[in-house]
Amino acid sequence: MFFLSWRQLISRKKQTLLILLGISFGTLLYVSITGLQLGMREYIFEQLLSNTAHILISGSEKDILPESITEVLYGDNKNVFWRVAPAGKRDETKIKNVQGWYQFLDKETEVLDYSPRLSTNVLLGSGQFSAPVNLIGTLPEKHARVSHIEKYIKQGSFLNLKSGGNSLVIGSGVAKKLGVHLNQIVNVSSRAGLSRPYKIVGILHFGNEQIDQSIAYAHLKNVQTVTQRPGRVSEIAVALWDVEKSNITANFWKNISTDKVQDWKEANKAFMEVIGVQDFSRYFITWSVLLVAAFGIYNVLTIMINQKKREIAILRAIGYSPARIFQLIFYQGIVLGMVGGLLGLFLGWLMCLWIGSINFGFEIGGSNNLLISYDWQIYFSAFITANISALIASFIPAWEAKNLTPMDIIRSET
Amino acid sequence: MITTKNINKSFGIPAQTVLHNVSISIKDGEFVAISGKSGSGKSTLLYIISTLDNATSGELFIDNTNGQQISSDELHLFRNKKVGFVFQFHYLLPELTALENVLLPARNLNLIAECTPLALSLLEELGVLAQKDKFPSQMSGGEQQRVAIARALILKPKYLFADEPTGNLDTANAEVVMKILMRANQEWKTTIVLVTHDPDFAKLASREIYLVDGKVSTKT
Fold first, then answer.
1. Nearest-by-Cβ selection for B91 from A3, A7, A310
2. What's the predicted TM-score (pTM) here?
3. Using CB atoms, which residue from A318, A407, A414 is nearest to B80?
4. What digits encode the pLDDT tens for the residues B25-34?
5. Considering only alpha carbons, which residue of chain A is nearest residue B102?
6. Quick one: which of A30, A77, B35, B151 could link to A382 by a disulfide (CB 3.0–4.6 Å)?
7. Quick one: which of B148, B163, B161 has its CA closest to B41?
């Protein structure tokens, strides 16, 4: 039956071409809009992940309760009444049992690696210029493993921090503010009043101006010295083998610890909400375009059945079964869906290449071009979607054709 | 053998009876013409005995089976293998060439290769071999009707039903068509039932069933 379907399709070249264009236009939009949005999202996710982690463990902010003060001052004596109950907050957050976490994380099979951090606000100075930065102390090798930070190093190397001697990696914006270059010396002044010379061993460029102007990395030990808190860790960034499991894993860890455990989606709730809205609008647009294309298929096939009634009657009279008539129409819908889908994938790919080559004249994540995702899953799902809509759209006319009786047609013709 | 018993057929609301208690019998190998004036129910009778249409009441026996009780799958196979149809308006598929149209019944049974030699010889006999790769729109009405007859004969059917096959043709072409039908009847013993309003063609048949207002009648 495919032979006949094919013949009928190619004998209506103009109609077939129009429908193909309709379907491929739908697929094209699906591919390019999804590619654009997912490209942007990949970039945002990477930024978020390099700044936070799959899971971030930090000390919980605790209110000071009267009971705990009572216990410290009076032991188990329960007959203590406060005239004015003590209230307030602990002056800083820290992880209570860092070694305990290390041991736990070493054993967890889902954990790829973890990196302890201590961050503090310091003032960098070079000559007359100064810049306040958020100085993050890490173990360089571990941090390089839990994030893509090496990728954003413009000069030098992140692993140069490893030596532990007073060395710094600073953001490109910071370097510009201070007017310093690689291997030059800057002064690091902490709140505690200490001032030490540090050598710049690397310059970072995330492509995000705000971050690039206010970030610096050093070895964890250096930051502990600067803040005069040896052994202190404010947070542990954890990378998992499977990012998708971060939410489940984080929820589990929350139950076994009093420290604050946040997966990266929870930590960036606002972003995730924006992405949710984006997803919705993308599905809405692409589905409505494909719906229009599907109506096109439905229309053309229905009109065709009316035009082809005589032929259908003849085929039935010759002994072709209703199932065969169904195939005759249905195959045409499938071919339209498949060819239109493939054409749309190709055009969509070209469209993505074209959009990706437009120079926007401002920096978006390392270059002046929009980031576009060429993930095979986009193309796969676009193709499947085009085919499903074609399938449904051709099923109904095919079913109608199947139920035509030859006699009704012959009677209406003569 | 085709036998009908008290066939009635009515259409529409209120019911308008087209056939009244028609009981006929057609032997295998006969060449029968069903004739009558326009509106006498001759085409309706043809479609009922050829299993394309159902009678309102009455019984039909064709090829030793009850036409009303046959399952639909058997019916399709029966039409495919044992029945050939020729309609007034040739009804060729416009997307297929003459040869492909002729081979349509064979295509349904996956017998294209086996039937191609016969298809070519049929086209040759009918004088349209030169048109075998042409599409219907490139052929004249007479040529199209001859191709349609070749299609009806391709599987050497036991029964051939023709509804005014000459109705659309000039005299010369009509005669060619009639000759072929008679040859099929003589050479392959094909039972032929022909509906026509042309008395000259009706006379060519071995027997004539004459309908007046949906009843079998003797011609005066």
1. A310
2. 0.68
3. A318
4. 888 888 888 8
5. A318
6. A30
7. B163
Residue A129 φ/ψ, nearest 5 degrees:
-95, 150
Among B95, B103, B144, B164, the strongest candidate for a mutation testing the A interface, having the largest count of A CBs within 10 A, is B95
Residues of chain A with Cβ-Cβ distance to B77 below 8 Å are 319
pLDDT digits 0-9 by tens, A316-358: 888 888 888 888 888 888 888 889 889 999 999 999 889 888 8
Q: Classify A223 in phi/psi space as left (phi over 0), alpha (psi -120 to 50) or beta.
A: alpha
Give the distance from residue B36's alpha carbon to the nearest chain A alpha carbon, in angstroms: 17
B93 Cα to chain A: minimum distance (Å): 6
Could you give the CA distance from residue A168 to residue A216 in angstroms, rounded to a whole number?
7
Q: Residue A1 carries which side chain, given as an amino acid letter?
A: M
Read off the tokens for B54. Answer: 């159902």
Residues in chain B closer than 8 A to A8 (CB atoms): 95
Mean pLDDT (whole number) for B155-166:
86
Distance from CA of A292 to the nearest CA of B (A): 28
CB atoms within 10 A of CB A235: 23
Which long-range contacts (C-beta less than 8 Å, at least 24 apart) are formed by B182-190?
B182/B31, B183/B125, B184/B153, B184/B160, B185/B29, B185/B31, B188/B153, B188/B156, B189/B28, B189/B29, B190/B29, B190/B84, B190/B153, B190/B156, B190/B157, B190/B158, B190/B159, B190/B160
With left for phi above 0 and alpha for psi between -120 and 50, is residue B213 left, alpha or beta? left
Cα distance between residue A346 and residue A28, in whole Å: 8
**Omega before A397 cis (within 30°)?**
no
Residue whose token pair is 């455990």: A261
A51-54 LR contacts (CB < 8 Å, sep 24+): A51/A211, A52/A237, A52/A262, A52/A264, A52/A267, A52/A268, A53/A115, A53/A146, A53/A147, A53/A237, A53/A238, A53/A239, A53/A264, A54/A146, A54/A237, A54/A238, A54/A239, A54/A240, A54/A243, A54/A246, A54/A263, A54/A264
Asked whether the ipTM of the predicted complex exceeds the cut of 0.85, the reply is: no
Characterize the bridge pairing of strands B207-212 and B215-217.
antiparallel
Q: Answer for the pair B197, B35: CB distance below 8 angstroms, yes or no.
A: yes
CA–CA gap between residue A400 and residue A394 (Å, rounded): 10
Nearest CA in chain A to B93: A311
**Structure tokens belonging to residue A205:** 């460029």
Instruction: Give the span between the Cα atoms of A370 and A68, in whole angstroms.
Output: 55
Strand partners, B194: B33, B162
Please give the residue of chain A at the shortest CA–CA distance from B135: A11
pLDDT in tens, A88-139: 776 666 777 888 888 888 888 888 888 888 888 899 888 888 889 999 999 8
Task: Tell me whether residues B52 and A406 touch, CB distance under 8 A.
Answer: yes
> What is the CB neighbour count within 10 angstroms for residue A228?
12
